[in-house]
Amino acid sequence: MSKAIRIHAHGGPEVLAYEDADPGQPGSGQILIRHTAIGLNFIDVYHRSGLYPPPGGFPLIPGGEAAGVVMEVGVDVDRLKPGDRVAYAVNVGAYAEQRVIAADRVVKVPDGISDEQAAAMMLKGMTAEYLLRRTFKVKAGDTILFHAAAGGVGLILGQWAKHLGATVIGTASSSDKIELAKAHGFDHVINYREQDFVAGVLAITGGKKCDVVYDSVGNDTFPASLDCLKPLGMFASFGQSSGPIPPFSMSLLAQKGSLFATRPTLFVYNARREDLEASAAALFDVVLSGAVKIRINQRYALKDAGKAHADLEGRRTTGTTILVP
């Protein structure tokens, strides 16, 4: 019997139960995967806590990012075969030794990228891809601000943005995290516990401010993030680790310089198969080229998912973390 982490009610890390869970057999258009590595992301915490409604209700197997090997394919699946190495980023269901998933939601992992790297970068790396290449098309000469620079998305996006020729500014909470971010493409990192980050951005840019702010923190960094933007700049809010942004008047965007604001999600950006393939291909290419390096900073056994969640919420992790079945 396959094992999985399941949630039967919202709560803290203690609600993550390690249980028997039959993955079932693949139906039409589906495949059965044996996971070899599973990614850990803050959205998993949101699903566990109830901040985001759990898709499909309870019991819920959380987790949206993993890599593994195809065990079986259902009818009408001709793109994949048993033994293929695949990876994916979906909504939930990854905290399991095995799972059935729609074949059109996975991509093949190319040679040169390990299963652990793939599991560690699909959700975070494709998030970086759409933020940099589609939400706001970063180009050489742009100046960007990214909050939580030492987090999983930050360490990928920092390298990628630097590769594109941008000046990359980040925020972080400790000297260790600042050094980590600087080793991953960030030109400047502001310790937001010791310095007002708006003042830091103004000093770094000589008062010119940024073209775009990427913010997954939410409540703690809003509305100050808007004060870091040039007129006509873009505020991209793609998470809320400190809590949701409170409702605000649209006139605030006018007052701050005719700003643009958006709340993008990976699953909308990659809803079409062709967009998913293009996003994954761009990510694989930039990793295989060496421009972006994927390092795994923490590993936990799948059964210890509760400790992994506690460490993530307690800001005791940096960069990328995986669960190992």
TrEMBL record:
Q: Which Gene3D superfamilies match?
A: Medium-chain alcohol dehydrogenases, catalytic domain (3.90.180.10), NAD(P)-binding Rossmann-like Domain (3.40.50.720)
One GO CC term on file: cytosol
Q: Which residues form the Enoyl reductase (ER) domain?
A: 11-323
Lineage, top-rank taxon, reads Bacteria
The record's section on Pfam families has:
ADH_N, ADH_zinc_N
Which InterPro entries has this protein been placed in? Answer: ADH-like_C, ADH-like_N, ER, GroES-like_sf, NAD(P)-bd_dom_sf, QOR-like, Quin_OxRdtase/zeta-crystal_CS
Q: Which keywords fit this entry according to its UniProt record?
A: NADP, Oxidoreductase
Enzyme group, top EC level?
oxidoreductase
- Supply the PANTHER family for this chain: QUINONE OXIDOREDUCTASE PIG3-RELATED (PTHR48106), QUINONE OXIDOREDUCTASE-RELATED (PTHR48106:SF13)
Q: What is this protein called?
A: Quinone oxidoreductase, NADPH-dependent
Origin organism is: Mesorhizobium metallidurans STM 2683
Q: Gene name, please? A: qor
